[in-house]
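hey so i finally got around to running the thing on that chain from the lab meeting. sorry it took forever, my laptop kept dying and i had to restart like 3 times. anyway pasting the input first so we r on the same page abt which one it is
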Amino acid sequence: MSADKAALAEYPVEGGQADPAGALAESTQGSSRALAGTGSLAGDLLQLSKMRINLLALVTVFAGFAFGQRTTGGAESLLSAKLLHVLLGSFVLAAATSMLNQYLEIKQDSLMERTASRPLAAGRFSPVVARSLGIVLSLLGLAYIFLLVNPLCAAVSAVTAGVYVFFYTPLKRVTSFSLLVGAFAGALPPVIGLTAFTGELVPSGWSIFTIQFIWQIPHFLAIAWMYREDYARAGFPMLTVVDREGKVTAMQVVGWSLALVPASLMPALFLRHLAEGFYPWVALGASLVFLVFAAGFAMKRTNERARVLVIVSVIYLPVVLITLVLGS
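ok and heres what got predicted. didnt touch it at all, straight out
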């Protein structure tokens, strides 16, 4: 038994235990019907596509596209057909990968209070339909980006979806290091936007990737702290589960938040006019504020402070990216 699994087995889960066999059986009974019980078909599809989360990802795709336009001095307007194509294709692909993720985690979702009401976990939507829809939409989204944007953008999109579905999703059940794999996939959307405009992997684009990669670690650790009992109940060996006292979690949150300070200034190293403008000051100030809240959580690891840190992190990323686009 691995160290993560051993710690998971000893974790004191609060509340009653769900019945995994019964929950999974209930969810698979929907194979002959797409809709059952409460909820609407439209509502279930919105849940399967993780609309709210993917809208934030689209913001980062737009930021990458706009950054590419600003940094290369391209004459093409931001309000171009190419931007519409990459946003639409990215949304379809993100919705598809979300469906496949939920299909692969039906059992785990049914054991977590936070996710038990999802369409597949609750047995309202057919797993077979969700899997088929996820595969078809993935192929359509990639083909759309390949044909109407450019091949490199489609390749980066394929890597993003592939890492999320085939590596991050199964690794979540094995090791807490899956967070780094998920952060890699989650940091690629701005690169998708950048390559949509430039058609190449320009060095400045990796500075946006680095910001988003580092940002995700404290962001998701704060979420995982709030739902650590849920994750333990579902058998996910998250760091917040195996680190029962939270000391390692606290150090990780502060360490990655501290790394975000110099990372947020990286774009200014590639663009002289960006360094001379207001971006470095906004990025530095926002990152220091983020660090203060991260330190506050580390000193007193309560769910309330974790929730505040999540809110701060959700505000932080659009602020930095929008300032980056305007400053460039």
